[in-house]
Predict the structure.
Amino acid sequence: MAKTEKYKGTHFKPSAGDRVFSVLNGTFFALFTLVCIFPIYYLFINTISDNSLVASGQVNLYPRGIHFNNYVKLLNVNDLATSVFVTLGRTVLGTASMVLASAFVGYLVTQKKMFARTFIYRAIIVTMYFNAGLIPWYLNMSMLGLTNNFMGYVIPAIISPFNIILVKTYIESIPAELEESAFIDGAGYFTVFRALMLPLSKPILATIAVFGAVGHWNSFTDSIILMGSEPKLYTLQHRLYIYLTSSSNLGKLMEGGSTLTASMVESVLNNRVISLTVSMITIVPILLVYPYMQRYFQKGIMMGAVKG
Amino acid sequence: MRKNESGHASVVMVVLRLLCFLLFAGAFIPALNPARLSELIGENVSLFTCALSYSSIASEFTRALQRGWVEKSAISTAYTGAVLAALGIAGSMGVFCVSLGKLKMKRLSAAIGIGAGVLGLSSTAVLLNAASMFTNSPNPDRIDPMMPVGVWVFAAVFAVQIILCVIALMFLPKPTAEDRYEIEARYRLFLMMLPFLALVLIFSYLPLWGWRVSLFDYRPGFKLSMDSFVGLKWLRYLFDNAATRADIMRVLRNTFAISGIGIATSWLPMAFAIFLSEMRSNGAKRFVQTLTTIPNFISWVLVYSVAFAIFSTEGFLNWLLTSVGIIEAGTNYLMNGSHIWLKMWAWGTWKGLGWGAIIYIAGISGIDQQLYEAATVDGAGRFQKMWHITVPGLLSTFFVLLLLSISNILSNGMDQYLVFHNPINKDSIQVLDLYVYQLGLGAGGGSTSNISLATLVGMLKSIISVTLLFGANKVSKWLRGESIV
């Protein structure tokens, strides 16, 4: 890309049409970027502004009456702390087990000596394209006792065919001589994996780790489907969903002209502020890892396009 | 002579491994649970679950224990039996693994197999003991004692296992001094893979067993028995029942419309990437790319939260429009049921456009720069270069993604539509995935839910999707000589 830039710049003066194009193009991208980013900024200024102004929709471009009590208040909201704990727990445990499993399985499927290797590899990959459907999956999970059980978040996510492909492709790009010499030196498969493959494939493992972590952090349908009767295990996103739907329902009642008790009005306001604030605390961790993730986007996507 | 003997032995070994596998699988089948000595123990509880948690057996007995209908020792005996059976099965899994080794390992596995078999048979004895404790209860009607068929099945398999192990020990030649406890590399690798293979089987293939529900009249909490077997009733119901047919038609219309809009605009990320690469400043390019990718990483709940903040009555849009003077009073746009398909597409695009462009941006950097230079020398303008060099260079990526999205036409995913649906837009937002969820599990599995029908619809969806995928793959092979999956 850099080459074209230089080329365009040095050899030709931009014509009038070129300039018009550049302005239009730039304007479009500026607008689209604004549309992508403004909502997050908007959420943020609403969580730190005066709550009564927020509730009546008067905080729109800049914060007014700045305070941070909402974040402090969240500490007192029931169940939110457990949700944060559950979500953090599944993110850490789920990501760690998925990364380790993907690394090991990805390494194993590169071993040509393995009994029934091709068959096993295909049996794993096929599950990416074919599944039994939501209800049989749910019945299966309930049969295994993984409904209303924290492990229901972690165990099914250990095997991730796509990530296994990524690791396998990466390991295949590592010179085979390294492995062979390790074998000659008397290393076993576990040793080669631990001392050679694990450190060498760190970049791709970092890639799948961040993506896996974001996936765990963001998931809520499994919480809704599996943890129905165990509110202690609701994830943060599920909690947020509940706040949002209840404040939307209460808001609807208000619009319908139903008479609301003062406590109901209070809870509408509260819910709006709470859901905004919870939204911010669920977005922030993602924004924090985002710069780190970005390094791996291109690599991850391009490698995904290479089939093994 | 010796060779012939080991021939027999290897046949015995294969049968033995098969038995061990069956024992393993049996531990996950609730219908074969040998520890289900009373109707009070859930019919969806497998031996595996029983052995893992005492409460899976004891949970329903609280009242029975209080009233003295059953002794606590009966329950703990049943649990002990379950644990012993599970240990026997674990031993058999050990047999499976060790028997893949060389001669000495094979002999070892046969010895383990005898031990595991004895353990298993002792579990049968313990369970029979527990069963008699249940039957001798002062009030058998209240605890419904039963003799699960699994007790006899597992006892029989364990007995056969012992016999086979003895035969194997007889047929296997005596190890010589050179024999060691070792396993060939190919089987060693296979054994390392085995736990993960088991996970794949349990979580991706075992659910297929749930398809049988579509042939039954399934009610949560009741047993699938021949009484509730209805054959193809639900398939006929799907076509004969006017209300269901209308539902399906509506749902399919939504699904095809939303997927169709997505497919018709699937060139957008490519255009985004091409125009982005026309921007002069590299810094600006990176800036735009960084910020437009962020929405991809926030969940649909958060997207809904954003939508709620911006489009509700007190939201930003109403403020903007009223302060500019276009409208006088705010309305809640989320409670408006019109143009739902387009709105859903717009949210999908907001979330995914920047992300979708990355693969094309990578593609553009892979195009040979000499092509552009040659074209410039030939007097090609900016748009001519874009159209004749960049677009053809990205077309094959575009084509693969297009085929994949066509084969995914029935799968819109559920997250987005679940968070955005409400009573006002429900008729035009319910896509197939959401329909299956709401039909089967929505409303808390209440009286309106129909698990059997939902299973059937999901099953048909899976079959059609995979057919479409293979079709797309064929098309790709035929047109480009490359497969996409």
Remarks:
- Confidence is low (pLDDT under 50) at residues 1-10 of chain A.
- The two ends of chain A are 29 Å apart (CA to CA).
- Chain A touches chain B through 106 residues (CB under 8 Å).
- The CA atoms of residues 33 and 136 of chain A lie 42 Å apart.
